[in-house]
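Lecture 7 notes: from sequence to structure.
We start with the chain below.
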Amino acid sequence: MSTSTDPAPLRAARLARLRAAMAAAGHEALLLTAAGGVRYATGAVAVHGDASLESVWPAAAVVTARKTYVFGIDAEHVPGDVEMHPWPAAPASAFADVLAGARRVGVDRLPLALAAALVRALPGLDLSGAETSTLPARRRKTAEEIAILREAQRMNEAAVAQVLPAIVPGRREIELTGHFLAAMAEQGVTACHVEPIWCAIPRRAADAPWTFAGGVAYRELTGDRGLARGDQVMIDTGMLHRGYMSDVGCTWTCGGETTTADRTLRARWQVIVDAVLARCRPGATAAELHRAALMANGPDRPPPWPVPLYLAHGIGLGGVEPPFIGTDLGLEAEEQMVLEPGMVLLLEPYAWEEGLGGYRAEHMIAITDDGFESLSGPPP
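Predicted structure tokens for the same chain:
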């Protein structure tokens, strides 16, 4: 986790977007308790992790039309223009003080008991989901945000490249995770958003730990097993750099010598990615990307991504975010998801075939005014 606050220009641009979205959504204030939301709104650096970790080190931000407040974050991690408070003994009372006068307030991850106490403290308070403000604001990235994501991806790719020579017969999967985390730490990146995955892909559905009906066989459980020559090792790493997520994925053959099956699957993955990229432009819908992937993969094969995961997802401050493409929301919902300049997507199709095994890799792009630009290099 970075120990410095975010730069003033970056903070100002994000806050301006957030306040514009609040006005459009009719929110007079926001009360945010997820670490990513707190940082986006204020530039203060909270402890980031899953909900259980954040409950141990709680933090909150309140955003109004004129002021921002932070609760529960040490002074060294809070910008000087943000009003700072320790985590209160009576949160409802403390939040009510700074929310006084606001009626429509957007909230995220607010415990029910705290919400009820706030309503008692502020009669007439109307609480609703903050997502109607935060998602429109965060959907499009500023140029500085995109530059950070590109830098994060470059460092992650470099760390993965350091580990590839260690993927040899007899090496335990879990050892590769250790090598990778050490390589990232050398670059000053230690915030792990998702546990790094290094695991052999099953070549037959019967060997998979789970397969959903209508889906392809899959495995994403790094274990203590030793790798064998020729294993297709699926790699997926998610690290936070300056709060923004890098997400690097590829598949590497143990021992480094690819087979005809490996090359066949790698080529199919590329065909799918190229078909999706050909439709990545402002105004395109998520449903168009979904259909392009299905057509490129072939009509007689299941969707080229594991159920219940997805073909693509958004990415930004704090981790993965909408849009999610290829989920059980279905094509009807995806028709309403429209690509806009500044959106950042992570494409992650998976080519798998019984007996051949699988190939999965990830490709990060930013939607531009007339198409897209790649933020990640080609998989090795």
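Points to note: The longest strand covers residues 191-200. The chain has a mean pLDDT of 94.
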